[in-house]
Specification:
Layout (H helix, E strand, L loop, with lengths): L16 H8 L2 H13 L2 E11 L2 E10 L6 E6 L9 H12 L2 E6 L20 H14 L5 E6 L1 H16 L3 E7 L5 H10 L2 H21 L8 H4 L3 H12 L5 H7 L14 E6 L10 H4 L5 E6 L16 H13 L15
Parallel strand pairs: 3-4, 3-5, 5-6, 6-7, 7-8
Antiparallel strand pairs: 1-2, 2-4
Helix pairs in contact: 2-3, 3-12, 4-5
Length: 343
């Protein structure tokens, strides 16, 4: 499909990619996301899914109160994010207003889910995400199923689209915002880029691993010297001790969707990417724009999963996801359920 022009045009003070990326994960935006979701008339229930092979994954199921839902959206967060990440809550709010039921999934060892499974999370655990999608489809069989993801969640969404038909998951379409295509190149870009991105992810991953060790001390006996490793070395340690991959390159290749892997994508996908993304190299995206089942929108600005539109911290990406999924499910996104008055 042809490369689609983007209508995202932030004011001049928001055209810095680092400003976009940092604001997207700021406490101010998290607070706004909570308020926006609270204002929507919906019921939110924690739910643990049987993802197969003894794996349990948790998430939040949200159902609109104004009317019966017309479709079901599965939302996938980025690495070391959670179902409560600001972009997840803001996207859920928009989808609920459009008439969707929404399930915000926590990947293994994300959010408050470390206790559910003994094994560590890694990015090649696609089978359990497919299993979670299948469990949702079985739970709400009458609702058309769509999915969306951000960053690593976008990578999972695209891989879910690759494998859903063979796995018996009735997935209609996916939307991916700044999805990770080539993990090896992304690691290189992060190492060469501003140090605060790498430090941010290192801090959050170390804290997650320490929590897992405390919950399962007999299974995870690594010492603090492991937690002090830098990102590449820590990833290599994790690959050697907690996956079936022989080395780091094989692990990265295992969840890559670069090269021609998306050329025969069986489920249609919408992709939104920023040319100035400081975490994920954007040059690979022009190649996938020519693939038959991918509609790519490449914006000049936006940073990494930012796309902040102004001082209100509203996001173009969340609005874009809701519109794409609503169109795929045959829902008029303009028809929104009433919201509660702001508290």
């Amino acid at each position: 499909m042809p490369l689609l022009p983007s209508t995202f045009d932030p004011p001049a003070w928001l055209r810095n990619p680092h400003m976009q990326s940092v604001l997207a994960a700021s406490p101010l935006r998290e607070a706004r996301a909570r308020r926006r979701l609270q204002q929507v008339r919906a019921r939110h229930d924690a739910l643990v899914l049987d993802a197969g092979d003894g794996v349990r994954l948790q998430g939040v199921a949200s159902l609109p109160e104004a009317a019966a839902p017309r479709a079901l959206a599965l939302l996938l967060h980025g690495w070391e994010g959670s179902a409560e990440s600001s972009y997840m809550q803001l996207t859920a709010a928009r989808l609920l207003q459009a008439g969707f039921a929404v399930f915000r999934l926590d990947f293994r060892d994300h959010g408050d889910s470390h206790h559910l499974n003994e094994g560590l999370f890694h990015s090649n655990r696609l089978d359990e995400v497919v299993g979670a999608a299948r469990a949702l489809a079985d739970r709400w069989p009458a609702l058309p199923l769509v999915a969306a993801g951000y960053s690593l969640g976008g990578n999972f969404a695209l891989r879910l689209a690759l494998h859903a038909p063979a796995a018996g998951v009735p997935l209609r379409r996916v939307a991916a915002v700044c999805p990770l295509l080539d993990p090896a190149r992304t690691m290189d870009a992060m190492e060469a880029g501003p140090a605060f991105y790498m430090r941010h992810f290192e801090y959050k991953w170390r804290r997650s691993l320490a929590r897992k060790r405390a919950l399962f001390p007999q299974a995870h006996t690594f010492g603090d010297e492991v937690l002090r490793l830098r990102m590449r070395a820590l990833t290599a340690w994790m690959v050697a001790h907690n996956t079936g991959f022989p080395h780091l390159d094989a692990y990265f290749d295992g969840y890559s969707v670069a090269s021609d892997r998306l050329q025969a994508l069986p489920v249609p996908a919408d992709v939104l990417m920023a040319e100035d993304d400081p975490v994920i190299p954007a040059d690979e995206f022009r190649r996938i724009a020519g693939y038959p089942n991918i509609a790519l929108e490449l914006a000049p600005h936006g940073g990494h999963c930012g796309f902040i539109e102004g001082v209100t911290l509203d996001g173009y990406a969340e609005r874009w996801v809701a519109a794409k999924l609503a169109a795929a499910a045959g829902i008029d996104a303009v028809q929104a359920a009433p919201a509660r008055p702001p508290s």
